[in-house]
Design goal:
Layout: E1 2-7, H1 15-18, E2 27-28, E3 31-32, H2 33-43, E4 48-53, H3 57-70, E5 72-77, E6 82-88, E7 94-99, H4 106-112, E8 122-126, E9 129-131, H5 135-145, E10 149-154, E11 162-166, E12 169-174, E13 184-185, E14 189-191, H6 209-216, E15 220-224, E16 229-231, H7 235-246, E17 270-274
Parallel strand pairs: 1-4, 1-8, 4-7, 7-17, 10-15
Antiparallel strand pairs: 2-3, 5-6, 8-14, 9-16, 10-13, 10-14, 11-12
């Protein structure tokens, strides 16, 4: 099953990092957040990726092209320039790297990736958010209801201490809890090809006409995820994720350490290279993150 990842936006709210690199290449624990996202999907057996590129997309291409070399032991014969690779990278992923336009909005990016879906169910997420979501349960939920689209509904982490008040008296204080009110779109979609019909052009925001239209037509369902989810919009978000990773208790790290270099005993990271405001491209919808 194909996994689409939008990685084309400018990421202006994380400009401390994104003046030099696209947001999906901002590192957590020495690895791009894009790698963390892909590792989570691969842990559940979803290893066929298609990445929609835009802003500084050449850096993501270069990372993928160099991935095996940088994560392997190499022998270089200087006289001939021959390079042989020994112990190291054995990831059996396929990665399509697709230029979807610098100014294309999220819906437009998704529709530009339609030729890579092969008329089947596919997954979609943004290149700037991690979660411990069980992707098998998400897919089972989608297949059970038979609609065109499933999004993952999450409760965002409160940015400030939560106060429970009775008059002027504080009866409960909690520094880190999920908000009690409302759900937001946490991405991690499962979709059918029919959703492409809801995208009019490159200027279409996925979070506007397509999702609004799917909801109006009764074709949009929500999978409620009550465990960990975190997007990386700002430097503060990056610091939070970095601290979780360094603690050794990063909730989104669902894979074993050996999986970072190997998967099912097959060798090689394979790729196909084909020639806004956040990691996915376009503007972030109200209420997300």
């Amino acid at each position: 099953m194909k996994v689409l990842i939008l990685a084309g936006g400018v990421g202006s709210r994380l400009s401390e990092e994104t003046t030099l690199k696209p947001k999906p290449m901002v590192e957590i624990g020495g690895r791009p957040i894009l790698w963390h996202i892909m590792m989570h999907y691969a842990h559940f057996g979803f290893k066929d990726f298609c990445i929609g590129l835009g802003y500084k997309g050449e850096l993501i291409k270069k990372y993928m092209l160099d991935f095996c070399s940088l994560n392997s032991d190499l022998r270089v014969t200087l006289r001939t320039g021959e390079v042989s690779r020994s112990r190291g990278c054995e990831l059996d992923w396929n990665v399509d790297l697709v230029d979807t336009g610098l100014n294309t909005q999220t819906g437009g990016r998704i529709k530009r990736l339609a030729p890579y879906v092969d008329d089947g169910t596919f997954m979609l997420t943004w290149g700037d958010g991690v979660s411990d979501i069980n992707l098998h349960e998400l897919l089972a939920f989608h297949r059970a209801h038979g609609k065109l689209a499933t999004l993952t509904a999450v409760r965002p982490t409160a940015r400030f201490g939560h106060l429970e008040l009775v008059g002027d008296k504080v009866v409960e204080f909690s520094e880190k809890r999920q908000t009690k009110e409302g759900w937001i779109n946490g991405a991690f979609f499962v979709l059918e090809p029919g959703v492409f019909d809801y995208v009019a052009s490159d200027a279409t925001h996925w979070e506007k006409e397509p999702l609004e239209g799917l909801a109006k037509d009764g074709q949009l369902m929500a999978y409620h995820h009550t465990s960990f989810w975190q997007c990386m919009d700002t430097l503060r978000d990056k610091v939070v994720l970095e601290e979780l990773w360094e603690s050794g208790e990063a909730p989104w790290k669902t894979w074993e350490d050996q999986d970072a270099n190997s998967s099912d005993g097959k060798q090689g990271l394979h790729w196909n290279s084909n020639g806004a405001d956040d990691a996915r491209g376009g503007t972030r919808p109200n209420g997300v993150g």
